[in-house]
């Protein structure tokens, strides 16, 4: 009897689209949050920004191209790509090439915790860009939430400086540049996603970004013979588990959940990064780190609910 009831509950949960969307979004956010941890570990095994980007691109590109080919089997998708594909490709290069380059470079100078929280502030950048471009002025409560978030980042940066971390300001600037580029990408991509669909847009944009990274490698070079086996495994894991899989999980979640619900699920990200950074990397976690984490998460939770 108990097993039958458990089966019925499991069956209902499986067919609950809202729950599936929630699980997709949570898992996507969790996997994406492990990215800075694996990058830091890859650097310990002799990797650098270029080698990690290249390994991610080499492992992710075949997947994106395969999914893109499947999607282009539909005549409607081919028509849309002919009309809008170049825009998606350019946005992909900006959002997932430039932003990633700034992001991975920043991890040479700052902690994984600080990097994740700076990137997590991108909704506040979207708000200010919307104000400048579309004249959508933020409400006073939004401004207060944004200020709280930046106070949170400042608290962690101050803690890292006090712990003797050099170049924190430079690394933070690179992470902020990554967040800015990604915010521009989000603002520009919304109309295209509506026309192309999230899967087609993601596949084309990410494939274009991966190709741009390969071109970057061909121009500036990288001594592949120096790569350790550990670095190669970490790079492939970053490409498949922390890049491709989260992109499609979040895309699947977005098709079911509202933007506010997606925003709430993503709030788990900084917490996962913090726990993993302390446990796997031995990063410090002070009172200022705790205060900064709370301020940023509360600030962004409020903004995403609007």
- Number of domain units: 1
Largest sheet: none
Q: In angstroms, what is the radius of gyration?
A: 20 Å
Beta-strand portion reads under 5%
**Average pLDDT, all residues:** 85
Shape: globular
Task: Summarize the amount of helix as a percent range.
Answer: over 70%
Topology pattern, helix = H, strand = E: HHHHHHHHHHHHHH
Continuous helix count: 14
First-last Cα distance? 45 Å
Poorly predicted segments: none
Count the beta strands. 0
- SS-derived structural category: mainly alpha
Description:
The chain has one domain (25-304). The longest helix is centred in the N-terminal third of the chain and has 32 residues, at 75-106. It starts with a helix and ends with a helix. The mean pLDDT is 85. The chain is built from 14 helices and no strands. The chain is mainly α and 306 residues long. It has helices at residues 2-15, 17-33, 35-44, 49-71, 75-106, 112-119, 122-134, 140-162, 168-196, 198-220, 229-254, 259-266, 268-281, 287-304.
Task: List the keywords.
306 residues, mainly alpha, 14 helices, 84% helix
Summarize the structure.
With 306 residues, this protein is mainly alpha-helical.
Helix/strand layout:
Layout: H1 2-15, H2 17-33, H3 35-44, H4 49-71, H5 75-106, H6 112-119, H7 122-134, H8 140-162, H9 168-196, H10 198-220, H11 229-254, H12 259-266, H13 268-281, H14 287-304
Helix pairs in contact: 2-11, 2-12, 2-13, 3-11, 3-13, 4-5, 4-10, 4-11, 5-9, 5-10, 6-8, 6-9, 6-13, 7-9, 8-14, 9-10
């Amino acid at each position: 009897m108990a097993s039958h009831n458990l089966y019925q509950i499991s069956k209902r949960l499986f067919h609950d689209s809202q729950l599936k969307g929630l699980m997709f979004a949570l898992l996507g956010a969790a996997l994406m949050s492990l990215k800075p941890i694996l990058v830091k570990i890859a650097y310990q095994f002799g990797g650098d920004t270029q080698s990690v980007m290249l390994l991610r691109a080499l492992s992710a590109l075949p997947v994106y191209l395969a999914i893109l080919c499947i999607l282009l089997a539909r005549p409607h998708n081919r028509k849309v790509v002919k009309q809008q594909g170049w825009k998606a490709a350019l946005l992909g290069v900006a959002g997932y090439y430039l932003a990633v380059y700034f992001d991975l470079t920043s991890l040479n100078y700052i902690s994984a915790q600080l990097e994740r929280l700076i990137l997590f502030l991108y909704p506040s950048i979207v708000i200010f860009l919307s104000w400048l471009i579309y004249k959508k002025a933020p409400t006073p409560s939004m401004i207060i939430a944004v200020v709280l978030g930046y106070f949170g980042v400042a608290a962690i940066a101050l803690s890292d400086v006090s712990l003797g971390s050099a170049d924190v300001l430079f690394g933070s600037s690179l992470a902020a540049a990554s967040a800015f580029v990604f915010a521009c990408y989000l603002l520009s991509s919304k109309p295209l996603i509506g026309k192309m669909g999230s899967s087609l847009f993601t596949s084309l944009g990410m494939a274009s970004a991966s190709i741009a990274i390969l071109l970057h490698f061909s121009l500036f070079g990288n001594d592949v013979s120096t790569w350790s086996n550990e670095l190669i495994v970490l790079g492939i894991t970053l490409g498949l588990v922390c890049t491709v899989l989260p992109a499609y999980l979040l895309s699947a979640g977005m098709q079911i959940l509202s933007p506010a619900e997606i925003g709430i699920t993503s709030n788990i990200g900084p917490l996962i990064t913090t726990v993993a950074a302390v446990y796997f990397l031995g990063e410090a976690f002070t009172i200022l780190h705790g205060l900064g984490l709370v301020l940023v998460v509360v600030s962004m939770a409020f903004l995403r609910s609007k």
